[in-house]
Amino acid sequence: DKAPLSKSLLLVPSAISILLTLLFQHYQKFFAYNLQAIKEDFQIWRLVCGRTICLDLKDTFCSSLLIYNFRIFERRYGSRKFSSFLLGAWMLSALFDLLLVEIAQYIFGITINSLPSGFLGPVFALFVPFYSSIPRVQVTQVLGHFSITNKTLVYILGLQLLTSGSYIWILALSGLVS
């Protein structure tokens, strides 16, 4: 309720991702986040398509659950402020993606031609206000030593998303920095 942007970010990219995975596999190449094509062939449209739709269903599921949990910020800030935050985080994380890839190539000699696709940069950027502004409420304890809070599931989903791909740490770091 009262979170139309979160609902549309939950439904539209998820539906497109499922359709691309199940029915239209031959169109997946248009949604690949191919950095080589962006830098060498100046295919800027790949930056938009590759950073919007997830091609992996596990990433789609985890990011959808995280967007559902982060809808509290749209209710708190309003749709206009929330959308401007997401747009700013999306653009800054795209810039940081390119910078981190260049830094990884310069320092470690790792050549990265493509990154995982999806709306992952802004999703990871939402962890910063989640950590700082949502209070921690203990729900229960496991084995008497480990406390389970209202934030535990969100952090587990973020960790699952972080470990789902080989270079997704670049997207996570750029989202957190943005």
TrEMBL record:
Lipid bilayer topology: Multi-pass membrane protein
UniProt name for this protein: UBAC2 protein
Gene Ontology cellular-component annotations: membrane
Gene: Ubac2
Gene3D superfamilies found in the cross-reference section: Rhomboid-like
Transmembrane intervals: 6-24, 85-108, 114-132, 153-177
Record carries keyword Transmembrane helix: yes
Localisation: Membrane
Top-level lineage group: Eukaryota
Key words of the record: Membrane, Transmembrane, Transmembrane helix
GO MF: serine-type endopeptidase activity
